[in-house]
Structures are given as C-alpha cells and as structure tokens.
Amino acid sequence: MATAIGSLKAGGFGSKVILYQAQASDTWALYQAKSVKQRIAELEARSADAPLAAKAAADVARYAAEEKDVEAKANALEHARDEAGRHGPPLGFAIASLQISIALASVCLITKRKGLWVAAGSLGAIGVGYLVVGLFLV
Questions:
Q1: pTM of the model as a whole
Q2: Over 60: is that where the pLDDT of 114 sits?
Q3: CB contact burial 92-126 (16+ within 10 A = b; e otherwise)
Q4: Which of 29, 52, 66, 77 is the most buried (most CB within 10 A)?
C-alpha cells in the first residue's frame, strides 16, 4: 500500500515538474519576444520623426513594464518546478526500499530466517520514513 502511494505521488510530482518546466519555457519565450519588441521600439524612437518617436518611446516603456511582469512569472514557475522536483529523490528511495523489503519478506516466508525478517522490517521502516519525508518534506 505504501509503495503504491509513493509511486502515485512520485508520478504526480514528476508530472508537475514537466508541466512547470513547459510553462516556464513558454513564459521565457514570451519574455524574449517582449525584449525584441522593446529593442525594435527603441530603434524606432531614435530614428523616427517626433510623433512616431513619442509613440515608440511609449511602447518602450510599456514593453519594459511587461518584461518585468513576465520575468517574475517565469521565475515563479521555475521555483514551483524546483519545489515539485525536491520530492522525487526521497520518494524514489522510499519506493526502492519498500520494494526490496517486500521481496525480502517473500523470501523469508520460504526460508524462515529471522535475520531476513529483521532486514525486511528495517528496510520497510526506512522506506516508510522516506515516504513521509518525500510526501511532506519534513
């Protein structure tokens, strides 16, 4: 049961990492587009006549403000991606420990060796501990 929960949650966090990375990449592409538009507007402001130069200067200011908002959003998405990614390693270790524990317990049913029961129980406890850490980042 704990292994199944760990696997499901690890998959969910992995999906979040991919989703946030894709969103952050799209947002950085938007940032680059705003930056290019700002540079074009700056060139227009320098080379155009007075009415067009004033409009281009206003565009430069607008793009600069939009650029800051887009950058903040992209950084927030990257932070969310990193937070979701922090869950992966402990959950992966938990799943591996729990699966090995289950395998050892199965061998113990056949061999009746108490040392293997201790090892299986210890690995199971370690796996549950890492599962808790991975889920809640205690």
A1: 0.79
A2: yes
A3: bbbbebbebbbebbeebeeeeeeebbebbeebbeb
A4: 77
